[in-house]
Amino acid sequence: MAKTAPNLCFPPLNLNQNRRENLFLSKNGCFIQKPSSKTTLLSPIFSSCTPIRISASPARSIDYQLTDYNVKILRFCELGNLHNAMELLCLSEKSELEPRTYTSVLQLCAGLKSLTDGKKVHSIVNSNNVVLDELLGSKLVSFYATCGDLKEARRVFDGMGKKNVYLWNFMVSEYAKTGDFKESIRLFKMMVERGIEVNSYTFSCVLKCLAALGGLKNGECVHGYLLKLGFGCCNSVVNSLISFYFKGRRPESACELFDKLTDRDVISWNSMISGYVSNGLAQRGLEIFKEMLRLGVEVDSATIVSVLVGCANSGILSLGKAVHALAIKSCFERRINFSNTLLDMYSKCGDLDGALRVFEKMGERNVVSWTSMIAGYTRDGQSDGAIRLLQQMEKESVKLDVVAITSILHACARSGSLDNGKDVHDYIKANDMESNLFVCNALMDMYAKCGSMEDANSVFSSMAVKDIISWNTMIGGYSKNCLPNEALKMFAAMLEELKPDSRTMACILPACASLSALERGKEIHGHILRNGYSSDRHVANALVDLYVKCGVLGLAQLLFDMIPSKDLVSWTVMIAGYGMHGFGNEAITTFNEMRDEGIEPDEVSFISILYACSHSGLLEEGWRFFYIMKNDFNIEPKLEHYACMVDLLSRTGYLSKAYEFIETMPIAPDATIWGSLLCGCRIYHDVELAEKVAERVFELEPENTGYYVLLANIYAEAEKWEEVKRMRERIGRKGLRKNPGCSWIEIKGRVNLFVSGNNSHPQSKKIESLLKKLRRKMKEDGYFPKTKYALIDADEMQKEMALCGHSEKLVMAFGLLTLPPRKTIRVTKNLRVCGDCHEMARFMSKETGREIVLRDSNRFHHFKDGYCSCRGFW
DNA sequence: TTAGGGTTAG
């Protein structure tokens, strides 16, 4: 009370002689007015006041006014009038000024953060040759530090003779405040070297600095030192140690200290809760909280905050709600930051309604509250709700910051809303946020996920500063958007600029996989091994996928077996791999193993297993999985699942059942589903059903040439040349062009692409002659070319010529000519392999003793000794 | 003359 109350009864500024007898000088050198006899409340202060000896003579009193600058300056200081205090200080003679006057003015300068005035005081101190004693020195140091001139503070500090432990601690903590923890530690070492008697404050600050520096070993040394000095039982020091060990990711050491701490206060308990929560051990943190309640330890707002974060991280809504009630009781919930934490707890626990209730009840909201809600909707898959909130934010003129922008971009990316994303981009431009790295990375990600790699690239090109995330986003974006060549180019450019990381590997491998670029993939695999990225599960899964898609199933299996803790993706990739290669039974065994491991399949793993069943003709098993998915796992079948089932029925010849199945589907079938049945009609030569089905397909996808060609082929195989002609005319009328078939083969890391019918390759002549030679031998062996597939109503010779030009044949011949003997020929085709080419590949494998692995748009065909792994299911 | 250790979301 004595420190603040005197201000309440100050006299007016201009000293009134008549009232002087009422003035007293307080202990800290300030004038205070003597209270009237009625004032009893402040009377205790006066017991500590010394009356100033003031003569009643008018002459002496004038003399006082002229000479005692100290008193006047002190009075101005007390009034906060720095201007007048400075003016008087400048007017005063050295001999008139007392040390206390300088310190008071300096304190005011610090309070008002007036660096200029404080510097002036400092220069007066210097020019008056005033000795910097402990007090004046401390004031100068703290003045400079408070005004942000830590360098000058340090200069004064270093120039001082005797310094007490407070001032040393002050400097240590000032460096820590600016983030210069190393300098803090250097000072601490100086303290120890100079024999300064450190105290508990020193250790609190030093341990915080060491935690920030990640100096676990140094911290342990300090721990030993403080024990030696006898601070091992000091509650505040042990609390600091607990926090230090938690920050150093050593919860067990923190726990040991807490267990031994007899004098626990609320900070000790809170340190344990928040320490566990921030170490990803929220459940243990919550247990500490329960123990705290059990023992009747009083909780405070910091306890509640940490517990809420713990509930959010572990998804324990019930406890979160109970703590919410406790917060209401304690009136904590009225503060905005607290409400935001609460809101986030509900949102992360999946209770969006609860989050919304907090949000709506909040008296004041800031951008964090809004962003929290947006993130909640996005997390819940309700991107539309997130975008609606953005519009509401705009209406309420809430200014978006970087985090808000990135959250909204994330919502747009999740929902694939390119238009909304572009609006956000406009906002970014209008608000000068284009140079922010985080914003740019999120923008690129949004464009990539919305399928616009052109826009993503334009953001990328305009970035002055790029980090590894920028590069990875672009590479991953190209890979996922079926632009593997661009991904590889970007990867090559990245290598010129910076070292890739494990995430880069997981982004580039799918590009190699989609190109079946085995050699490039192997190069990257080598890089992964050299850099120790194989333990990254994303990388390991991508490697399995790479070898699956490059047709090296054995290696994929080996790598899969080597993954120590397989996740759902690892299993799903392997199941799909077996399916793609026609190993349906192996896929089923793998699926069962996954369930034995306690991993629950999701809708994607069911697509993989159903796909595997359909590509191996496993009808009964397929139905069983379809049933299990719906009934045991409560997964509502999606179009992809129905497509697999239709495919399975069609491939196994149950065409009318497939038709019925489509008609009774609870969701509208798309062209792919009808297309599967159309393929079945082709396999089983059901022209009548094919016509019925084809019309449904044409309605849904009138522009897709593939389906017109498919029907034309069905007609051609039935030798209905009139209908083939009709189809060709229909295609011609619509101005549609058949998608050109192309195939490629990677030789020495280079992808060699062949387009059907194109003979511009430098080795064309050699290829042609090899194919003719092979064809002759095949005929001798009783092989008749499947000329039906030529789709041309011409004479047999012409048809055979047309078939010779199919891209997969050209590539296979090129492979035979170029690759060393016994090397497997690996071919990839953009469309489904044609029947004639399939026959020829079978023959080639027998005739040349070569293994041929052909990946078409649908599956793998392994040709060996005249047999194909697809067993006719393709 | 003065201080520290626990908490706050997107």
TrEMBL record:
Pfam families according to UniProt: DYW_deaminase, E_motif, PPR_2
Calcium keyword on record: no
Residues in DYW domain copies: 782-874
Keywords noted in UniProt: Repeat
Xref: Gene3D superfamilies: Tetratricopeptide repeat domain (1.25.40.10)
Keyword Membrane set for record: no
GO biological process: RNA modification
PPR repeats (start-end): 164-198, 265-299, 366-400, 436-466, 467-497, 567-601
GO molecular function, one term: mRNA binding
Classification via InterPro entries: DYW_dom, E_motif, PPR_At4g14850-like_plant, PPR_rpt, TPR-like_helical_dom_sf
UniProt similarity note: Belongs to the PPR family. PCMP-H subfamily.
Protein name: DEFECTIVELY ORGANIZED TRIBUTARIES 4
